[in-house]
Amino acid sequence: MRVVYRGLAVAAAVAAVVAVAVVVVLPPEPDEVAAGPVTAPPAAPSSSGSAPSSAPAATPAATPAAASSSAPRETPSPGASLAPGYTAMEALYADPRVPRLTRGVKRMPLRSPGKRFVKDTRTGLAVPKLPRPWKVYRAAPFTTRQALPKRRGASPRGMFVTCPLPIMEQKSPRDTALLAARWTLNHHPKGSRITWIASQPVKRGWLLVYRVAYGKRSSRAAVVVMDGGTSKPGLAFVTVPDSQRKQWRDIGRVASGVRVLG
User: Fold this and answer.
1) Is the distance from CB of 187 to CB of 159 less than 8 angstroms?
2) Per residue in 31-45, pLDDT tens?
3) Residue 84 domain-assigned?
4) Which of 45, 47, 126, 152 is the most buried (most CB within 10 A)?
5) pTM attached to this predicted model
6) Where in the sequence does UniProt note compositional bias of the Low complexity kind (predicted)?
7) Are 223 and 239 in contact (CB under 8 A)?
């Protein structure tokens, strides 16, 4: 019996040693964390929703040059520019409705101005008050306005207006007048084209007289750009359709009669 008890004791001792070995050799359970230096917790995401530091790095922001190249190009205002980077005169030369003003365009004789005037303090100009059948009408959106009566079956009618220069002033009064003439096509029927009749300097400005053709019909027109001493030059614009051709002679009155107020 002593031999049996000794054998059991030896077996128990061996089992205890194995158990200790198992405890030492086995790795920690998954929910255990090995001890290490204490570190601060990661910063909380900002209110803008930025990714934590463990997230992949964000794609670098586009450079200004790349951003500008992908941005839509600005649509130019009429008479101002053809596109970003182009000048107003380059836009004019690219417009098929307005031919080049060559030296072959002659001057027109200017008659003596009349004695009746309409004063425009906004532009610093005094312009002829045209005889009947012209009438003075409510000016808006211009600063002065005279017009011929409407004719049955003919939508365009004669109009004579003044206003501060509605386009970009150029270094040359001639170039400014060219841009102003182009702008007046906004007040003619769609598809209108210009043919030059006269071009000449006037005191403190420039005069252009031209024909405007639209389909089988046409108008005679003139612009006078003149510095009236205000913040912007003044514009006088007259147009008369061929259905009222008897008043074409009044275009000469306008060309001769615009002057600086004073």
Assistant:
1) yes
2) 333 333 333 333 333
3) no
4) 126
5) 0.69
6) 45-72
7) no
